[in-house]
Each structure stands twice: as structure tokens, then as C-alpha cells.
Design a protein that fits this description.
about 375 residues, alpha+beta, 4-stranded parallel β-sheet, 4-stranded antiparallel β-sheet, 12 helices, about 35% helix
Length: about 375
């Protein structure tokens, strides 16, 4: 029996690192309004935990997707009863593992042996920190520096950060754990405000440091989605072509892999893109080798954000091969589940808010 759950507040929960975590209102509403999403990648007769069964069934029924498995929706309060009526092997599949979701499931009656240990969740948290991106980025770029860009520095001292501002350089500052642009601040030509500086000071105090990166002339956002299996192997799943606004996710292109690759060929040689994919598979498998061999971690889905950057001095583009590692499911995984089988079909997937609810829209 697979039990699936959408917990989009995951990144904020990682930053808090407490079991009895209460997500901000927007996070709770996003979880409630899009609770049915795991049904899109579920197997037949899987269980999806939702806040409101009638609402989830109605929203799922209205979604015009090519593949819509038959699933059972139940609330967190009902999960113990559902488990008691089945003797099938149990697998739990959340959007992402953090102390809060583990505690919620344990409190709801999910057996401890079906959940990752506290130690495993803490190792997942460490690997989810943006500090891990730096080492991966350096190794993936080795020997192909002329075709790529990307650098990042982890700073734990506020005064050191302030000294960088004196150089009038344009830079992006990121919290080690944050969600969808909320943990990012831009410093342009050394400009600084009291609010931005206080934010940096607080992040260093609460999370131990900040990531500092150059501000690139970005042309296009995209990403790659991956899976880590029970043997620790990392395998590529597909491209994610998405849009952002002020650092926050706004939507994905839904198309076949062939169509998406054709789009990317305008910016980067596809053979080189495949080489980067292979490098990432190897480096990420090594990075995640510190995870405990627990059955609850036998199938991890995650994504790597990338971008295409315009060259400063001549025509052409550079590939930033690892802007961020999202050690959880992403909206790119949702897009892969909804992607058409026909090369002639193409549409967009967006999340919109109509002053009452969040909606997934396919157009």
C-alpha cells in the first residue's frame, strides 16, 4: 500500500527543524487546496492523504489530465483505520521528508518502522541545505568551465558579508533552507536597505549562514528531475521547463521530452546537456551515499534547478548546471506526470490564486 501526501511547506519545515511545526497560512492553504496532486503520479488504489475528501475528489475529477489513476482519498485522522484494514506492505511517499511530516504521520498512527528514522531525516535536512550545492557545482563544471558558469560562497559571518557589499558587485543572497523565492534577497550595485541587511543578519543567526552568488544575466530557467532508488543509484527522469517571477515559481511547460529538448537546443548543445546529466547522476549518487539504508528512503524523487545565462562579451549562452538541489518532489515532477504523449500537443501548467483558493490550471 502506497500512502502519498502533498506537504509543500516542506522547505520551511526544514528551516524550522522542529517536529511540532505550524506552517504559515499560505503554506497550509496551498497544501489544502492542492492536496490531490499526488494522485497524478500514484498507482491504482493508492491512498492520498487530504484535508477534505469531498473537495479533493471534486478538484481531481475536474482536472483535465490524460492519466488519472483511481485512488482513495482519506484524511490524516482516518489513516490509522485505513491501515488497520490492510495487511499489505506499506510505503509512505510525501512531497518531502522533514521532522514535521514524520511527526504528523507517526502521531496519526503510521508505524514507526514505515517511517525514516530521526537520524535519517536530519541527514536529509543537511543534504537539502544550499551549502551542498557548492561542491556539486564545482565538480560538475570541472573541465567544462568555458561552457558553464556558476559559483557560490557560504558565509557564516555578518561582517564578512558587509565587506563584500563595498565592492559594488551585484549579488544574490540565499538562506540555506527556504521555499520558492522566499529565502532570496538581491543586492544590486552594492545597494542595501535596513530590511535586507537585517534579513541577512537574522538568517545567519537562525540558520548558521547565507549563500552568496553572483547575479547572472539569466535568459531561461529550467531543471532536471531525478530519482534515487533503493541501491543508491540516481537516474534522470526528464526536463522541467518552468517560469519564475521574482524568484517564485509560476508555471511549467507540458510537452514531450523530445519537444522540450528541441526547445533547449536553441541555447545549449544537446550532447553537452546529456554529458551534464550523466555527471549529475554520478555526483548526486556520491553526495547521497551518506543516507542510511532505510526502506522509507528507497525511492527519493528530487530536482536540480539550472539556468541559461547570456555571455557578457560575445553572443552566445552559458549553462549554469546546478543553481539549486531540491531534495524533494518539485512542480517539475507534477509536470512530468501531466506531460502529453504526443509531440504535437503542448500546454502550460500554472498555479493561480483567485482570492479564495489555489488552483492548478492547464491551458
Amino acid at each position: 500500500m502506497n500512502i502519498r501526501i502533498f506537504n509543500p511547506e516542506h522547505d520551511i519545515a526544514l528551516a524550522s527543524n522542529i517536529e511540532r511545526f505550524t506552517a504559515p497560512h499560505a503554506g497550509r492553504q496551498l497544501r489544502s487546496d492542492l492536496c490531490y496532486l499526488p494522485a497524478l503520479w500514484a498507482d491504482e488504489d493508492d491512498v492520498v492523504i487530504v484535508d477534505d475528501i469531498d473537495f479533493a475528489e471534486s478538484a481531481y475529477r475536474r482536472l483535465k489530465a490524460e492519466r488519472k489513476p483511481k485512488v482513495e482519498f482519506c484524511t490524516m485522522e482516518q489513516i490509522a483505520h485505513v491501515l488497520s484494514s490492510s495487511h499489505a506492505p506499506l510505503a509512505i511517499d510525501p512531497w518531502g521528508w522533514d521532522p514535521a511530516i514524520r511527526f504528523q504521520l507517526l502521531s496519526a498512527g503510521v508505524p514507526k518502522e514505515s517511517l525514516p528514522s530521526k537520524e535519517a531525516v536530519q541527514e536529509l535536512r543537511r543534504l537539502s541545505g544550499r551549502q551542498c550545492t557548492t561542491a556539486i557545482l564545482e565538480r560538475v563544471r570541472q573541465g567544462v568551465e568555458s561552457k558553464t558558469c556558476g559559483e557560490s560562497t557560504y558565509l557564516t559571518d555578518y561582517d564578512t558579508f558587509c565587506s563584500l557589499l563595498q565592492n559594488d558587485s551585484e549579488m544574490v543572497v540565499k538562506a540555506p533552507w527556504s521555499s520558492s523565492g522566499r529565502g532570496v534577497r538581491y543586492f544590486l550595485k552594492g545597494e542595501q536597505t535596513a530590511n535586507a541587511l537585517n534579513w541577512v543578519r537574522n538568517v545567519i543567526r537562525l540558520q548558521g549562514g547565507v549563500m552568496v552568488e553572483p547575479l547572472y544575466n539569466k535568459v531561461k530557467d529550467f531543471g532536471m528531475e531525478f530519482r534515487r532508488d533503493a541501491e543508491g543509484r540516481v537516474r534522470y527522469l526528464g526536463l522541467s521547463l518552468f517560469q519564475t517571477q521574482n524568484g517564485a515559481y509560476t508555471g511549467n511547460i507540458l510537452a514531450t521530452e523530445a519537444v522540450k529538448r528541441d526547445m533547449m537546443s536553441r541555447y545549449v548543445n544537446l550532447a553537452f546537456l546529456d554529458e551534464v546529466t550523466a555527471r549529475l547522476e554520478t555526483e548526486l549518487a556520491t553526495l547521497f551515499s551518506t543516507l542510511p539504508s532505510e526502506s522509507a528512503l528507497s525511492d527519493l524523487r528530487f530536482g536540480v534547478d539550472m539556468m541559461i545565462v547570456a555571455k557578457d562579451d560575445v553572443d552566445g549562452f552559458l549553462l549554469h548546471p546546478c543553481v539549486e538541489i531540491n531534495l524533494r518532489r518539485t512542480m517539475g515532477h507534477v509536470a512530468l506526470a501531466l506531460s502529453p504523449m504526443d509531440d504535437a500537443k503542448e500546454c502550460t501548467m500554472t498555479i493561480v490564486y483567485d482570492s479564495k483558493r489555489y488552483h492548478l490550471r492547464l491551458k
